[in-house]
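Milestone 3.1: sequence recovery, worked example.
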């Protein structure tokens, strides 16, 4: 049940493909299909009784979402299919019908995303002030390769000039490849500093999902999260 809700939530956040943790409240026992067998290719029925559950909604592809939770102390994965043509918005409402999901319930998902912006602030960062030509030499060291060859005392040459070697005695022969040095002018960066202006944007995601049978909402799921990212909005000249 809980997983069903999570799957619905995952559908709405499908673009991000992030797993989501939430609370599932089951008002009436729900029977759904869970993954089983080798690589989860088989399905078997599982009943989620009334109560509260912790669950994770994990989108594994654009057309599949796994709802993961523990039932009777055992981990269960409940897969939900998303129709290829179905749009899963970041904001708004979407209904995944049982005919598409592969589960015997509809999933009604309501998603709301808001954001807030901090005041502008600045940081001192390194920057490239210019370039200068520098004469440099780069040396590639020599390499020595060695291999074992039959000992001359164990080899003989016949009248046709064919050399035949017998026995296990060997000697090591090494060949050294000389190194090389290349010189020339290179452009080297001259570093300075500049002031970079930033703003922080915090995004809040709230999801409410319902497992529905007919007109009855058998379970509800809630997920809330926030994330903050910094964005550059300008910079001074390098000094």
């Amino acid at each position: 049940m809980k997983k069903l809700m999570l799957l619905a939530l995952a559908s709405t956040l499908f673009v991000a493909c992030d797993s989501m943790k939430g609370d599932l409240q089951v008002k009436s026992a729900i029977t759904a299909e869970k993954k089983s067998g080798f690589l989860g290719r088989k399905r078997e029925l599982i009943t989620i009784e009334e109560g509260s559950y912790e669950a994770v909604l994990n989108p594994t592809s654009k057309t599949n979402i796994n709802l993961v939770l523990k039932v009777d102390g055992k981990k269960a994965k409940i897969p939900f299919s998303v129709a290829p043509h179905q749009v899963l918005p970041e904001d708004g409402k979407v209904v995944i019908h049982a005919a598409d999901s592969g589960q015997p319930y509809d999933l009604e998902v309501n998603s709301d995303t808001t954001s807030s912006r901090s005041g502008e602030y600045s940081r001192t960062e390194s920057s490239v002030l210019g370039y200068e030509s520098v004469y440099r030499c780069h040396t590639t060291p020599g390499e020595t390769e060695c291999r074992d060859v039959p000992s001359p005392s164990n080899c003989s040459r016949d009248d046709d000039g064919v050399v035949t070697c017998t026995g296990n005695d060997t000697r090591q022969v090494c060949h050294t490849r000389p190194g090389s040095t290349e010189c020339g002018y290179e452009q080297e960066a001259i570093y300075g500093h500049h002031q970079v202006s930033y703003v922080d944007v915090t995004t809040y995601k709230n999801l409410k999902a319902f497992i529905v049978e007919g007109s009855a909402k058998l379970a509800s799921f809630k997920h809330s999260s926030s994330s903050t990212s910094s964005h550059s909005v300008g910079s001074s000249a390098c000094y």
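The chain has two domains: 2-117+203-228, 129-191. Residues 1-16 have pLDDT under 50 and may be disordered.
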